[in-house]
Amino acid sequence: MAASLPIPIFTNLQDLYQNLGTSLNHAERWDNLAKEFVSRFGRKPAYIARAPGRVNLIGEHIDYQLFGVFPAAIEHDILIACAPRSSPEQPGNVVADNLHRKYTRQTFTPTRIPTLGPVGTEDVPKDAVHVEGWHLDIDKTELRWESYVKAGYYGVLNHFFAHNDPNAHPIPVDLLFTGSVPAGSGLSSSAAMVVSSTLAFLAVNGLLDDNNQKPKDVITKGSLVQIAVENEKRVGVNSGGMDQASSVISLANSALYVSFFPKLSAQPIPLPGSNDARNPGVPSATFICANSLVVSDKAVHAKTRYNLRVVETLAAARILAVRLGLHVGPREKLTLRGVLARLMGENEDGDEVDEKKLAEGLKRMATEVECLRPEGATSELGVTLETMVEWSGMGDEAFKDVYLSWVDVEATHFQLYKRAKHVYEEAMRVLRFREVCLDAAASSTSETSVLEALGSLMNESQESCSALCECTCPEIDELTRLAREAGAYGSRVTGAGWGGCTVSLVDATQVDSFIAKIKASYGPYKDLEGDALREVIFATKPSSGACVYKFE
Ligand code: NG1
Ligand code: MG
User: Which of 38, 295, 305, 464 lies deepest, with the highest CB count within 10 Å?
Assistant: First the structure.
C-alpha cells in the first residue's frame, strides 16, 4: 500500500533526479540552493527536503467530508536546505531564510514550559499554540511565510519531544527555502511548505535515520500525512487531507486516488496515454494549470468561504442522518461519508470499502438530499441558523457548541441542500473518473473517447463548483469557458477556489496552441510574455511526492 511505504531518502543525485521523473532541469536549482546555504550559513547543508504542490484533477470540497479525491503532485515544489547548528544553549532555535527576497529571514525558538498552564497566564500567552512541554507562537491574524514553517515544527515537537524526558531537546537548525509553487493559487503551496518543513525538522533531528528508530517510530508516508494535516490546521484552515496526501504519497507519472474513509488510503493511477506522450497520433492526457490571477486569501476569507463550507456540510450530514432515521451520537460530528456508511450498513472500523456499494449509496444520497431543500420566499439564500438548529433536533446551545464553537464562521444563512448535493455528486464523478482511467490503463487504449469522458466529468464538476458549492468566481468561470473554446476536453477550478487556478485537460499535441489561444483570449494574460506567461499557464506532468536528499 502506497501510504505504508517509508519516506524516500536519497544519497545519490542521479537516483534523486530519476525519482522526480520530470523534464525540468533540477540539477541547477538543487545545486544553487546548496551553494547559497554555504554562503549564508558558512557550512554545507546536511539535507535538502522536497515537497511538491499538487493539482486536483477532480473531487473538490469533498475531502473534509471524507470522500475520495483525485489529485496529482506537480513538478513545482518547495526545497529546504538545512543543517543542525551547534549552539546547545538554544535548544530548538530556528533560523529560517528564503531565496525569495520578499520572505525575510526569521528566527524563533520554541519555549519549554514545565507543565501546561491555563491559557492566558504569563507562561502561556493567549494565542500561543500549545505543545505539552513546548510552545510556539503562530500568527493567525495575517498570512506570514514562517507560519507554515512553525506549523511543520509544531508537529515534530509535539510528536517527538513532548514527553517528560528533560534530555530530549530539539536541535538548533538553519534552514534555507526556495519555492516554485505559486502562492495562493490553489496548487497547495501551503501543504508543500508544511510537508517540506516537517520533513526538514525530522531529518535534522535524526528522526528519519533507520538506526535511530524503534520499529514503531518508523515514519511512513501515511504517518507524515497525518502529522502534516494536523500541522496545517494550526495555520487556521480546517482542511481535509488531500493536499498533504498528494504532496507526500504521489508517484511520478501517476495521479493519486486518495480516500479517507474508513482510514487514509492512496492508490497511484496512471493517466491515459501517459506512456505514449511522444507517440504521434495517440491521444494523450495533458493537464494544464492556468492561474486566474485572482488571489483568494484564505486567512482573510475562511469565515465566509472555506470554513463555512466545512460547517454547512457537517450540519447537512447531521440533519440528513436525523431525517433518514440513522443513529448519530449527541455530540458526534458525523460526515456526509459517515451518513452514507450508516445507511448502507458499512463497517466503519474496517479496512475495506465495497466500491459497488459505495457507488450505489452515492446514487441514492444524491436524491435523499432533496429533503434538505429550503422552502419559502428566501429559499435561494438557504436556511437561517434558527431553522438549521431546529432541523438538527438539537438544542440551541448544544448545536452551537458542536458545530460552531471550534471554527470561525460568519453567515446569516446556510446552504445545506446545495452543498450536500455537490458533495455526493462530486464524489460520484471522482469514482467515474478513476474508473475511466483504470479501464483505459487495463486495455492500454487512449482514445479520444476516453479523454472526452474525462473532460465531461471535469466540466460537470466545474458546473457544480460554480452553482452548488459556489466556490468559483467570474474570472474562473470565464477562464474555464475560454479553455473549452480553445479545445480543452474539460476545464475546472482546482483547489479551494474563489480564485486561483483552473485545470484543463488537453491532448498532448495541442498544448502550445491551447496556451496561445488562452493568452489571446483571457484579458489578464494579454501583456504577459516569456517567463511571466510560463508562470501563470503551464502544462504539468504528475511528479513524485516528498523526499529527502542526504549529503554524505
Ligand atoms: P487548497 O486551498 O487548494 O490548498 C483546499 C484544502 C483541501 C481541499 C480543497 C478543496 C487546505 C490546506 N486544503 O485546498 O483540503 O478541501 O481546498 O477541494 O485548506
Ligand atoms: Mg493550501
Answer: 464
Determine the residue of 54, 62, 76, 243 to mutate for testing ligand 1's pocket, defined as the one with the most ligand atoms within 8 A of the Cβ atom: 243
CA–CA distance, 53 with 72 (Å, rounded to integer): 9
**How many CA atoms does the CB half-sphere of 387 hold within 13 Å?**
18
Taking CA atoms only, the protein residue closest to ligand 1 atom 4 is: 188
> Exposed, middle or buried by CB within 10 Å (0-12, 13-18, 19+), for 39?
exposed
Cα–Cα distance for residue pair 463/407, rounded to 1 Å: 28
Q: Which ligand is nearest to the CA of 239?
A: 1
Q: Under a CB-based contact definition with an 8 Å cutoff, are residues 106 and 149 in contact?
A: yes
Distance 280 CA to ligand 2 centre (A): 37
Residue 111 forms beta bridges with which residues? Answer: 135
| pLDDT, tens only, 431-468 | 999 999 999 999 877 689 999 999 999 999 999 999 99
pTM of the model: 0.92
- From 67, 143, 306, the mutation candidate for ligand 1 (largest count of ligand atoms within 8 A of CB) is 306
Q: Using CA atoms, how far apart are residues 154 and 145, in angstroms rounded to an integer?
A: 15
- Residue 78's DSSP bridge partners are 51, 179
- The pLDDT of residue 124 is above 60: no
79 phi, psi to nearest 5 deg: -115, 140
Would you give the end-to-end CA distance of the chain in angstroms? 30
Cα distance between residue 304 and residue 308, in whole Å: 6
Place of cell 511512513: 220
Query: Which residues are designated catalytic?
Result: 243
CB–CB of 524/499 below 8 Å? Answer: no
CB 285 within 8 A of CB 271: yes
pLDDT in tens, 232-290: 888 866 678 999 999 999 999 899 999 999 999 999 999 998 655 445 566 789 999 99
CB 489 within 8 A of CB 454: yes
- Ligand 1 pocket by C-beta < 6 Å: which residues? 60-61, 63-64, 186, 188, 190-191, 232, 237, 239-240, 242-243, 495-496
- Point out the ligand nearest to the CA of residue 192: 2
What pLDDT is attached to residue 131? Answer: 43
- C-alpha torsion sign, points 186, 98, 17, 231: negative
Specify the residue with its C-alpha closest to ligand 1, atom 13. 239
**Cα 380 from chain centre:** 31
Q: Dihedrals φ, ψ of 159, to 5°?
A: -85, -30
What is the per-residue pLDDT for 199? Answer: 97
Nearest to 447 by CA among 489, 483, 400: 489
Cell of 51: 515537497
Ligand 1 centroid–CA 432 distance in Å is 21
CA atoms of 446 and 281, how far apart (whole Å): 10
- Which residue is closest in CA terms to ligand 1's atom 6? 239
Q: For cell 514545565, name the residue.
A: 114
Question: 465 C-alpha vs ligand 1 centroid, how far in Å?
Answer: 13
